[in-house]
Structure formats: C-alpha cells, structure tokens
Amino acid sequence: MNKILLNSLVILLLFVTVKSFSQIKHGLRDEQGRHIIPRGFVINTNDHKGEVFFNSDDYARQVRMGANHQVVRLELGKVSEFPGGKVEPNYLLKLDSLVALGKKQDIKTVFKMTVYGVDKFVWEEFWENKDDYQYRTYINAWKVIWERFKDEPYVLGYDIVNEPRKLKMKISYKVLTDKYLIPLYQRIIDESHKINPNKKILFQSVFMNKGEKIDNNQYAEISSPINRKNIIFAPHIYQSNVDFIKKNMDRFDRESQMLKAPILIGEWGFPTFAVTDTTLVGNWGQLKYREMYIRTAEVFDRMGVGSIKAWFLGNRTMQNFLKPGPSTWSIFSDKTDAGTVERKYITDVISRPFPQAIAGDIQSFFFNFAKRELDINIIADNSKGVSKIFIGANRHYPDGFSIIINNDFIMYYNPLKNVGLELHKTTKNSNPSDFIWDEKTQKLTVFKWPENNKKYNIKIVPGLRNF
What we know:
Number of helices: 10
Shape: globular
Structural class: alpha/beta
Oligomer: single chain
Helix content: 25-40%
Number of strands: 25
Mean pLDDT: 93
C-alpha cells in the first residue's frame, strides 16, 4: 500500500470516528445542563368555532405521546391595544392554567404570537411602522407576557413573530428580511432580555406569498446574522414531497450555522384531508401520509432537531382552501375541541421513541420504523442529573421491549407481567435499580449511568430477550 493511499485511509477513518461521536448540534440544554430534545404540540386557545379548553387528562395524553414541550398560540387581540384588541385578564388566567397543566406533567411552554383577534392586521402597514406605533404596540403586547412569566422556569421562551409576510410590498424577500425583519427581531430580543435575559427567543423566516417557493420551500432564506444570545431558529416545514424534505432541512441547517442558533422545528406536518380519514391508498390516502411523515421524522432525527406538531386539537372544524377539499392540521378526528380519537396514521409517527433528556451529550439517535428499533449514542455525565427516554411501548412495543446497553447490560419489559424491568445480563458497575420503566408516562428513567464520562450505545428493540 503506497503512502498516499495510507494517509487517505487514515484521514477517512478519523472523519468517520469524529462523525460517529460528534455531538448533535441542535439539541438544547436545560438548567441542569442535560441535553434536551424538545417535542410536543401546538396548543391553540381557540379555533373557528370558538374557545378551546384543555384539562389534566389532555396533558397526560400529551405525555404518553412523547411531549415534553408545548407551544401555546397567543392571540394578539387579547394581549394588545391594537384596534379591536385589549388585554383580557381572563385570557391571561387561561394562559396561566396552560402553563400550570404543562408544568404538572413536566412539559415546558413556549408562547407564540399570532396576529389573530384584532380588527385588522396589515403586514405592509406593520413594516412601514408609521410613528413607531406598530412596533411599539406589538412589543408592549409581548411585555404583558414577559412580565407575567419572567420568573416561571417552565416557560422556556417566546416565538416572537409567527409566519411574517410580505404580501403586496414591492421589495424582495431578502430586502424585507434584512431591512425590516432582522432589525425588528433585534429590537424585540433586546426588550425581552431587559426583563429576563435567560429566556429563549425563537424566530422564523418570512412566509412567502401563495404559490411562491424556492426549491419547493415556501419559507424565505435568512442570510444575515441576528447577533444576539439565547436565540433558537424555529422554521416551519409543511412539505408533502418527500424528495424535498432533506433539501429544505439542509438549507435550514446552513442558516442555523450562520445564525449561531440551534433549530427547533416550530411547526411541521402536511395537513390531512377529510378524504384521508376514509382512504388507505392513493395520493391522499393514509399509507401515503404515513410514508410522508416517516420520511420527515427520519430527517429530523438524523439531524437531532426537536419538533412541534400542529395541532393538539379535535376536529370540530376544517378549512376549505386546499385541494382536494376540507383539510386540517388537527391530530384527532373526533368533533370536539380537545379530541381523543387519534389519526394513528400520523400520530404513531409523531409519537416515536426518542431521548428526551440525557445527563451528558447525545451523539446521535434514530428510530428505525421498519425494525421498530431506537438507537442512541451518548457520552454520560451523571453530574447533570436524571436521564429520560420516551419509549411509547403502548403503541410501538405491545409485544414488550428489550434495553441493550453496550451489548453487556440487558434488561427487558414483559407487558404480560406487572413487575417492571427484568434483568437478563449485567456488568459489575451496572445497577439495574437505576433504570425505572414508568408505564403511565411511557418513559424509561435512568437515575445514574453505570460509569461517568463513558460512551454508551443504547438500543430499544421489540420483544423479550431479543438480542
């Protein structure tokens, strides 16, 4: 073997090693320093039929679907002084209750501002910002929220402008972004950080006009930095063409690197149509949707990004502006506000197993739908506290599951028994009592990894003693 070829092989092996054990860059860190992968749902406070209300059972259901975060949609008309709007005390109490319901289930909250509920909101007038009225009034609306939740640790942060639009403005999307959107973001971030600089600020890119796309991506690119701390890039992706999912996410990844902000997908999941609920095959059939959602989920997990699915709602109303007919983003099909009847052709994908919180560094994770196997690589750091892995055995492992750690520490769960995890194989440093399966929350809790600062491969596989 010549020297050039040998050097090339060494470089390749080094690249593979670094790639295999390099930490994913899009996970977040909590107060303990644990590596967090946020997942959950958009929580609407109303729909086209009126107010929406949730109770503790709805939040327990979210947990059993893998949620550890929620994004609550704010109505501008109920927290601002825009024409037709006012700050409504009862609405603020409702927000308090949503945060409290989440907190009780260990779900953190992000608030997202929508422009609903005012007499009218004209994006062109907003960007013009005559006499500074538009921006000042908008920021004052946020101040109501910032002051109310500044000391609540279960409020992670704020998604400050939902799907900003250009509409009839005679400028390019780049000019709109650079001249108007980014300066507004900087101003909002600075004002928020005066109240609590530790809260995360989430931001989005411009939502292009109907029919306008770049490489089949309807969200305009951000090409200039924001230069602020504690920021999270929260793009939306509603991609129905599986050939463009990775391309869209790769572009978001490049933007994230330039912005120096991790990605949390703020909304995702192509809307389902009324016909989908009654059709298995074809362009709008359930099998097509399952594949579409699986391909999206695979890209998310390979990148290590968190994701928030719209909407945690029942189906008492549908929208009728897309072909082939009435459609919805609701994940439940019953005609109630909260809903309990899952659209399982999408919810089983949304609720796939994943590492929620790891004491240490997550190197990679991936759920193989075909094999029903979750594969996680971490470097343990027990000083960060307790680790939690969502398994979702009730939907993914009704036949039981096995936990394989570095191939030498193996436990399994038999759903026919009520004895928790059973031990098959162990090492001298492993303590099986540090691993607890909670059927109620569908989570595996790890109180302590066998050895600190050690690399671990964790596999969750179907069946008992299936090694």
